[in-house]
Amino acid sequence: MPEITVYTVPNCADCEAVKRLLNSKGAVFTEKNVQEDPAALAEMHQTANVRIAPVTVIGDQVFYGFFDDQRPGILAALETAQ
Predict the structure, then answer these.
(1) What is the CATH number for 32?
(2) Across the chain, what does the average pLDDT equal?
(3) Alpha-carbon distance 56 to 79, whole Å?
């Protein structure tokens, strides 16, 4: 399984949805709160070239934006990784 990182902010419904999906698939991931950690924010910006959470990184694949738009890609990346 590739490394998975989820960049989040507090009180974000899409961030919570990504984490629920990953947990439901048994995926182990690292959560980085970009609101409280400036280094994580810089890392997210460098990785995805965006400044809005959630950003989900699965191996070398990057997903960002509304959860409903990204769900199929995240699921496909998890399937491929297994």
Answers:
(1) 3.40.30.10
(2) 94
(3) 15
